[in-house]
Amino acid sequence: MKVAYWPGCVSRGFTPELHGSMAKVAPLLEIELIELDRAACCGAGVIAEHNQELADTLNARTFALAQQTDGELMMNICSTCQGAQSECQQRLDANTEYRDEINANLSDEGLRYEKGLTNKNFLWLLVEEIGLDALKQKVKRPLSNLRVGPFYGCYIVRPTTRLGIDEAHPRDQYLHWVIEALGGTVIDYAGVYKCCGFPIITMNKEASLAQTGRHLGDALDAQADCLVVPCPLCHLNLDLQQPGAAKVVGRELGMPVLHLPQLVGLALGLSPKDLGMSKHIVRPTSVIDWSSSVVAGAAA
Amino acid sequence: MSQFTLRIRRYDPRSGDGAYWDEHRVDMPETQSVLDAILKIKDDADGSIGIRCSCQQAICGSCGVRINGKPGLACNTHLDEAAQRRHVTSPSDPEEGRGESVIDVEPMGNMPVIRDLIVDMDGVHWKKIQRVTPWLINKEPVPEREYIVPHENMVDVTQSMACIQCGACVSDCLSMEIDPLFIGPAALAKAYRFVGDPRDAQPRERLTDLSEDQHGIYDCTHCFNCIEACPKGVDPMSQIMRLRRIAGSDYDIEDRNNGYRHEHAFVKNIRKNGLLHESDLLADSYGGKFHPRAVPELIGSLPVGVTAFTRGKMTPKTALLHPHKAPKEVKQMFDKIEGRQRRNELNLYVSGFEDAPDEGAGKEPAGREPGRPGTAQDGSSTADAAAGSERA
Predict the structure, then answer these.
(1) Quick one: residue B274, left, alpha or beta (phi over 0 = left, psi -120 to 50 = alpha)?
(2) DSSP tag of A33
(3) pLDDT tens across A168-192, in order?
(4) What is the interface size between A and B, counted as CB pairs within 8 Å?
(5) What is the CA radius of gyration of chain A?
């Protein structure tokens, strides 16, 4: 399938391995990515907090650019983008007069957002468009014996009504399902739906790192081999800031944190190096004994 | 009639024993409430179960508890809805567990347990409410007759006035879980109720106080748990974001916690680059690379930075020179919107949704929030002129 692809900022900034691994994984899943390279930052909630019209216009512009492509829908790889864009889209779709005013801001560029865009995070697309059965069939190297803790973060699971989470679309379960479809073992621990603390890192660093450290420690106690996240901002706190978080909570952590496309890529046969895992602060290759887990699965 | 198993968390701190689960089965219509079931168990089996309740109509806010992991009122949660509420379904079988009718009832979080399902609201929740000066400070001189207040302003603050002080949002606040001193969602929603009220004489003082407190408006992590928890649709987090917007944009209150600087640095960063340049944002959030406040922070971040370099997460080039530049249309868009005399906002609580016309509470002009102080009207905004000028 062809999608209008919004990688976000951080996947091309401090977590380049996320954008890189998505580009490697997409062809294996027969996803054609049409990158929205003229689109700008979603505002990450911060611009909306500063000026709602500005955030809504920035995202309406991204949506309009997506609608100009021949993609079936728009796909993002960042929960924060998903949450911030869903918030703006909810306002844009709710009120014609307001939408017209926002579109007027785009008229100089000849752009216009038409109500009703479908914008899905890669996680949702995997389950709802590709399907778990099709995904299972593509697995070349089941993640046997790999104990994976899902870390959803906030923006992709709350608020449930805005994000379309209901009985028919239990999107707050999808990470669990994908881990299992790839052959891994889901680890339940206290932090599954909690906040990584990143949004307050410049305001209250101690509290921010205490949140991250606690979740990593809980996953460690539950004997997870690694965590998987659909959000690069969570990754910044959970991985890049992990040494600092370890100091704040006063314990050794050493918990590898994988981006969702990396976990998928591993099972589809790509190597940790292909997937940019050597760029992580806590290198998954040095912590997980791949010879007895993933690689053993490949031999089977 | 259906059968439900209620597992009630029991705890008496005076007993010296730990908490334990107490299991009871009830046969009741599935549309009866969790509170109905608990009161029946108290009547029929064990009168010693501790729960606070009064009106049984979701008005008094007494019976806040956690039901199958989610906070809410026991009196307005149906038994069938509670039983279907899942912690996590089995990944292999999403339907598994749906047929079971086990309902776990626990005391709310973030507050000490007095006994069983009763938590110490005085020690946490009410103290925080008192912290935000929860009353109107009259403007002087007080008018001879009633205050005349624009309709939109009052509809706007009715959202936070809908709070029944049940504590459900406090129970699940993830910031408070780590930082018990955080003022928290209920109290900050209450603070907005007065900051957003044009009759109040001291919105600037209130906002300065809440910005300067290290555990104030900039201590919220945007986790949305309070929005999910609230049984009355108060959306506490949205009220906190309004407080930040008014503090940062209308009053230019520069706090000591980098909230204001971070927000303004972020906006400047995107205007310039289109995409976020993280290295610049980090420095600018502390006032700029060479600011005395930034220097210790940047030195503190050095080990992280060095590892990021050695891992190839960034290169000196990408750290110093951002590869992206915002298209000129984006810059113009920023300048045009930031230059408006009055912010153009849509408040869905007031306007409702076109596709669901009954949900709207407000009238024309639909859903526009009170704008920034000033008197000039921008042509594209329909915000009520009187709303902003009240505070000018």
Answers:
(1) left
(2) E
(3) 999 999 999 999 999 999 999 999 9
(4) 218
(5) 19
Q: Residue A278 has what DSSP assignment?
A: G
Residue of B287, B198, B280, B211 lying closest to B249 (CA atoms): B211
Give CA–CA dist A275/B39, Å, rounded: 56
Query: Which pLDDT tens digit goes with each residue over B91-134?
Result: 455 455 545 689 999 999 999 999 999 999 999 999 999 999 99
List % helix, strand, coil for chain A (3-state, nearest 5): 50, 10, 40
Q: Are A216 and A255 in contact (CB under 8 A)?
A: yes
CA distance B392 to B386: 10
Instruction: Provide mean pLDDT across the span A144-169.
Output: 94
Q: B333 and A51: CB-CB below 8 Å?
A: no
Structure tokens at A296: 């053993």
- A147: closest CA of chain B, how far (Å): 14
pLDDT given at position B20 = 97
pLDDT of A288 > 80? The answer is no
Task: For chain B, say whether A254 makes contact (Cβ under 8 Å).
Answer: no
d(CA B336, CA A105): 8
Chain B: closest CA distance from residue A161 (Å): 9
Q: What are phi and psi of B223, to 5 degrees?
A: -85, -10
Pairwise CA distance, residues B8 & B41, whole Å: 10
CA distance B114 to B94: 37
Compute the radius of gyration of chain B from its Cα atoms: 25
Token pair recorded at residue B243: 């407080």
- Strand-pairing partners, residue B22, are B8
pLDDT at B146 over 60: yes
How many residues can be counted in chain B? 392
- Residue pair A125/A79 in contact (Cβ under 8 Å)? The answer is no
- B354: closest CA of chain A, how far (Å): 6
Cβ neighbours around B212 below 10 Å, total = 16
Residue in chain B closest to A15 (alpha carbons) equals B313
Q: What angle do CA B58, B63, B67 make, to 5 degrees?
A: 100
Q: Rounded to 5 degrees, what are φ and ψ at B389?
A: -70, -20
Burial group, residue B168, by CB count within 10 angstroms (0-12, 13-18, 19+): buried
Residue type, B187: A
Q: Which chain B residues touch A44 with a CB distance below 8 Å?
A: 266, 276
Q: What is the mean pLDDT of residues A199-213?
A: 95
Strand order in the sheet with A226-229: A185-186, A147-150, A226-229, A257-259
Chain A residues touching residue B182 (CB < 8 angstroms) = 207
Q: What tokens does A142 get? A: 């089941």
Alpha carbon distance B260, B351 (integer Å):
29
Query: Looking at CA atoms only, how far is residue A48 from chain B in angstroms?
Result: 9
How confident is the model over B194-206, as pLDDT tens digits? 999 999 999 999 9
Report d(CA B219, CA A208) in Å as an integer: 9
Rounded-to-integer distance, Cα A62 and Cα B15, Å: 60
Q: Give kind and range of the element (H or E) at residue B280.
A: helix B278-285
Quote the CA–CA distance of B262 and B284 in Å, as a whole number. Answer: 7
Lowest mean pLDDT among A240-244, B22-26, B167-171, B297-301: B297-301
Q: Do B222 and A47 make contact, defined as CB atoms within 8 angstroms?
A: no
Distance CA B197, CA B206 (A): 12
State the residue for tokens 């597992």. Answer: B7
- Give A 132-171 residues with CB within 8 A of chain B: 154-155, 158-160, 170
Q: Give the CA diameter of chain A.
A: 60
Say whether A144 sits in a helix, a strand or coil.
Answer: coil
